[in-house]
């Protein structure tokens, strides 16, 4: 498989060094390299050597000094663009000293893709609590990447499996604060951004959106909540005025079964777990997180650092492999369709 122009690799970031990121990167290369586009990882060589040795993974690691070296190296080993960490962590035990390196790896990946030295970014899971304890000011990857992209970008999170795509209107908000962040304007932004992505990134000429209700039974005509009547339904009307095919607000409890999924290309979900529970139930291991609205392609495995199994050889690389393949597929589609970056 080739990337955008046959030469540009994908850039992977290290993620939290005490988590399973190193293991799944090594397994992705060891078990799937013949069917994957070339990629390099911005990481600490010594750390990956320790992970490979501890888990008995036979992976040759090749230091590179520039992304352009990836293509030649990839068939024989995993290319590593050096990002030194000051303290080698024990599995499951994050070290605060390593936070700057974790963030620098993300910054470098963004710079590399913006400078057209890589086709897309695939991020490995970070540990938000460790980052925030060290002064990280963002709820997660999505918001940090939007900050790095600049120009006042409002990021939109989409989760993807083979049979379901969900878009989060509110992202990392405490449940009791959801209604404070749920606005007509935000729903319209997410709907327009999702429709554009479905057309540009997935080749769907007439995207169909479903919009989930917030309250049980879609608010039951206002008896179980006002949000459907005052916020969600007006947003649906506005999206239709933009020429988007959209249905809703629809009761969430009947929106995700197999027959319902045949009627739309993506669902706008009002809060995190409304999207994540059905998606992970349908495909727990193969989901991919992608950020819409950025001036570059970014995907990620749809799971966390998994400290509970880190260092035990139990981590499954399926979601990372799916994230790599999706980033590559989007890159190829945009190139063929001549979609501007």
Explain this structure to me?
- By secondary structure, the chain is α/β, with parallel strands linked by helices.
- The protein has 2 domains: 1-155 and 294-341, Isopropylmalate Dehydrogenase, CATH 3.40.718.10; 163-282, Isopropylmalate Dehydrogenase.
- Helices cover 38% and strands 16% of the residues.
- The protein has helices spanning 21-32, 45-55, 70-73, 99-114, 128-133, 141-149, 178-181, 184-202, 227-241, 258-261, 272-282, 318-337; strands at residues 10-13, 39-43, 61-64, 78-82, 120-122, 156-160, 165-168, 208-212, 245-250, 266-269, 288-292, 298-301.
- It has a 12-stranded mixed sheet, sandwiched between helices.
- Strand 6 (156-160) and strand 7 form a beta hairpin.
- Helix 8 crosses helix 9.
- It is globular and about 60 Å long.
- The model is unreliable at 1-5 (pLDDT under 50).
Search tags:
16% strand; Isopropylmalate Dehydrogenase; 12 strands; alpha/beta; 341 residues; 12-stranded mixed β-sheet
Number of domains: 2
CATH superfamily of the largest domain: Isopropylmalate Dehydrogenase
| Alpha carbon gap, first and last residue | 21 Å
At the first level of CATH, the class of the largest domain is: Alpha Beta
Q: What structural class is derived from the secondary structure elements?
A: alpha/beta
Unreliable parts: 1-5
What is the helix tally? 12
| Cα-based radius of gyration, to the nearest Å | 20 Å
| Strand order in the largest sheet | 3-4-2-1-5-12-11-6-7-10-8-9
* Count of DSSP strands: 12
Provide the CATH architecture of the largest domain. Answer: 3-Layer(aba) Sandwich
């Amino acid at each position: 498989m080739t990337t955008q122009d046959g030469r540009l690799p994908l850039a992977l970031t290290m993620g939290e060094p005490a988590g399973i990121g190193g293991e799944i990167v090594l397994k992705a290369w060891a078990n799937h390299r013949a069917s994957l586009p070339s990629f390099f990882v911005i990481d600490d060589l010594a750390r990956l050597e320790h992970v490979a040795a501890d888990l008995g993974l036979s992976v040759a690691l090749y230091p590179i000094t520039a992304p352009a070296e990836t293509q030649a190296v990839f068939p024989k080993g995993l290319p590593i663009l050096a990002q030194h960490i000051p303290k080698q962590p024990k599995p499951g035990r994050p070290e605060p000293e390593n936070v700057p390196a974790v963030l620098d790896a993300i910054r470098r990946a963004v710079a590399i893709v913006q400078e057209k030295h890589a086709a897309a970014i695939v991020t490995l899971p970070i540990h938000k609590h460790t980052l925030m304890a060290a002064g990280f000011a963002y709820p997660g990857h999505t918001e940090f990447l939007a900050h790095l992209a600049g120009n006042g970008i409002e990021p939109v999170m989409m989760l993807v499996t083979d049979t379901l795509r969900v878009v989060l209107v509110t992202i990392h908000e405490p449940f009791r604060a959801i209604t404070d962040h749920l606005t007509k304007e935000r729903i319209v932004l997410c709907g327009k951004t999702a429709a554009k992505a479905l057309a540009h990134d997935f080749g769907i000429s007439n995207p169909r959106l479903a919009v989930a209700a917030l309250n049980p039974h879609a608010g039951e005509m206002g008896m179980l909540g006002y949000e459907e009547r005052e916020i969600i339904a007006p947003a649906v009307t506005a999206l239709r005025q933009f020429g988007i095919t959209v249905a809703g607000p629809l009761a969430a409890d009947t929106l995700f079964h197999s027959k319902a999924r045949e009627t739309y290309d993506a669902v706008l979900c009002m809060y995190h777990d409304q999207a994540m529970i059905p998606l992970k139930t349908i495909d727990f291991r193969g989901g991919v997180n992608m950020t819409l609205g950025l001036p570059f392609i970014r995907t990620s495995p749809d799971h966390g650092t998994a400290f509970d199994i880190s260092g035990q050889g139990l981590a499954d690389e399926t979601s990372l492999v799916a994230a790599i393949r999706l980033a590559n597929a989007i890159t190829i589609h945009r190139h063929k369709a001549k979609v501007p970056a």
